[in-house]
């Protein structure tokens, strides 16, 4: 993974790029049961952007690696992430929607994939930040949802979400 450094007002910012893919089939969403590291729970497929691949290439690769599916369409729905002002770092997630795909589901090291009914999102064990972001993929238009991380308290201190139609 390549880190991008941005110099602003003599302050260096580290930017790390990731992709998330919301896969929909009829009224179901595909999620992975992630049970490793500090972020367990059901999540959309996704992962790090490997330099020098494009964001769309990363989304195609991550979806295939984690689920066995090949996306036939990808729509960039929004940008989300975390900003840590103390650490001068930004984690940027490029959020894609996929509604057409081929292939058979397979399990990866990232977790077992499962189709969930959209009406059950509130009952699925997942991180609050992901639960709040999932409906943004489903609406018309695009979005930006940035979480400001409090490195001292180890939690999100503020969220700014902007919706575009």
Automatic annotation (TrEMBL):
Residues 14-139 form the Nudix hydrolase domain. It comes from Streptococcus peroris ATCC 700780. This is Hydrolase, NUDIX family. Belongs to the Nudix hydrolase family. Keywords: Hydrolase, Magnesium, Metal-binding. It holds the Pfam family NUDIX. It comes from the Bacteria. The keyword Ligase does not apply. GO terms for cellular component: cytoplasm. GO terms for molecular function: hydrolase activity, acting on acid anhydrides, in phosphorus-containing anhydrides; metal ion binding. The keyword Metal-binding applies. Its cofactor is Mg(2+).
């Amino acid at each position: 993974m390549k880190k991008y450094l941005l110099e602003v007002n003599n302050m260096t910012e580290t930017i790390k790029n990731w992709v998330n893919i919301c896969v929909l089939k009829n009224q179901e969403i595909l999620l992975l049961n992630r049970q490793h590291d500090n972020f367990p729970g059901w999540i959309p497929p996704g992962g790090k952007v490997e330099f020098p691949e494009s964001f769309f290439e990363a989304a195609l690769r991550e979806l295939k690696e984690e689920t066995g599916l090949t996306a036939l369409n990808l729509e960039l729905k929004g940008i989300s992430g975390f900003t840590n002002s103390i650490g001068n770092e930004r984690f940027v997630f490029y959020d894609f929607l996929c509604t057409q795909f081929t292939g058979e589901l397979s399990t990866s090291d990232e977790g077992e994939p499962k189709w969930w009914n959209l009406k059950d999102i509130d009952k699925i064990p997942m991180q609050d930040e992901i639960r709040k972001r999932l409906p943004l993929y489903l609406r018309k238009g695009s979005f930006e949802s940035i979480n400001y991380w409090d490195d001292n308290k180890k939690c999100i201190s503020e969220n700014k979400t902007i919706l575009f139609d």
